[in-house]
């Protein structure tokens, strides 16, 4: 049965007092606190709240007559402990491990504290009856997340422990009925467009390789330690400074000059294409920006998304790639 916001606030206060100060708050003292903060008018109201907590939320509330105070018979109990599904818990652990790897232990620690608070409050918050809202006021885009995201914590552990990984891999462009088993020395992970990739050293080819997690099958951590040549480590560390997206580029870093219509120029200034972006000119007729990138397939696909609002000025090789790509598109109509 849904509860009101005011009842939720009282329940939260009662739970906090009993859990933090067991056997220290008498009925009268707890009533006075609830009256002061939430305006309850009688002891019977407090008694009803406590009875409701016992019956509806299985709160093991007891009263110590000798010490004249409420306490939980189960010290680990928290009224608002989460009613999470295994998927919910996996998602929270995933977030914590990713934060540990990407933002450092201090940020992950803050998340752990926040998650503890969430674990203590989410189930009753889900029951709270929102008062006064008659329509939805926030809309967010539903994202289609890349598959095998549960591999991310495993891969983070592999990198941190310097362990090799083993998996089968199915390519989009040449699917195999029985993908071969691969071994990789993982170096880092990268998230692009809600999909995850692992970049590592392939001992068979002697080069760095990139694999999408959504195409990996049967990922396993091996006991074998990684042996990555220093030159490969340096190359991978610098790889994404001048790459858009995830696909490798066989060419050098070049000066890419793009001309946008004034309207789309404002969009690109507000949300730059890449960290190397510079505005060369911004007039009533066009906005010209410069990037320093190694052209690749991901960049070409992104530039095409601007349609008639973009003209590639430099380099000549990228201009030609755009022409050929657009011509191939038109040939299909």
Automatic annotation (TrEMBL):
It comes from the Bacteria. Pfam families: WCX, WYL. Coiled coil: none annotated. One of its GO terms (molecular function) is DNA binding. Residues 153-220 form the WYL domain. Residues 253-329 form the WCX domain. Keywords: DNA-binding. This is Predicted DNA-binding transcriptional regulator YafY, contains an HTH and WYL domains. It comes from Spirosoma endophyticum.
